[in-house]
Here is the input.
Amino acid sequence: MPDGRSVNRSWLLRRSCDGDYLNRYFAGRGATAAHLHEAITGEDQDPELVDHTG
Here is the structure.
């Protein structure tokens, strides 16, 4: 079973920004907290996550 941090990170990466116009106020903080840069440049990239990032 994954630890709480990995579950939280997964949620932040996939669902913290759902397209609502208010997301702009916290998108940068969510990306920083979840280490988005590492998730999209690492060896085990998730294609859907990379696509959603744009």
User: Anything to note?
Assistant: The chain has one domain: 4-53.
